[in-house]
Amino acid sequence: MQMTAMYWLYAGVALILLEIMTPGLVSLFFGLAALTVALIVWLMPTLAQGWQWLLFSALSVLYLVLLRKSLKSVFSGTRKVSDDPDDGFTGKLALVTQPIAPNRPGRVELGGTTWDAEAEGEFDVGASVRVIGKKNLTLRVEAV
Questions:
Q1: How many CB atoms lie within 10 A of CB 127?
Q2: Is the distance from CB of 128 to CB of 106 less than 8 angstroms?
Q3: What is the tens place of the pLDDT at every residue in 46-57?
Q4: Which residues contact 51 (CB under 8 A, 6 or more apart)?
Q5: Whether the Cβ atoms of residue 66 and residue 104 lie closer than 8 Å to each other
Q6: Are residues 27 and 85 located together in one domain of the fold?
Q7: For the segment 66-114, what is each residue's pLDDT rounded down to a tens digit?
Q8: Contact 27, 15 (CB under 8 A)
Q9: Total domain count for the chain?
Q10: Are 41 and 90 within one domain?
Q11: Predicted model pTM
Q12: Are 64 and 119 in the same domain?
């Protein structure tokens, strides 16, 4: 079977759809390579099938090597623990809305939004606390 631009297009779309249904961020690059080969075959319809497969293989590896690391950080996000005093939360006062105890996070209100909070001491609802750090979406607090 001779691979035409349409077959490469179908293969590329199918591989990208497969990436949506499965984790791993691998078949996306094969899909991008197939779409690129579809464009090349559309522009050069007389390109031999052997060269098409060679191009597909080379582009798959190239896309995988060049794009995977940057796209993986975009899609998976990055987790950051911040002890930076300039993070926008450290030093601010918050109001406890759910009791907080050691090993039992509660919630605090800060800037009109409620946040998960943890502390080394116990705090009842209505207590005023100071933010001393942030771990992902959980604020670390202490007594004022």
A1: 20
A2: no
A3: 999 999 999 999
A4: none
A5: no
A6: no
A7: 887 777 766 665 555 545 555 678 889 999 999 999 989 999 999 889 9
A8: yes
A9: 2
A10: no
A11: 0.52
A12: no
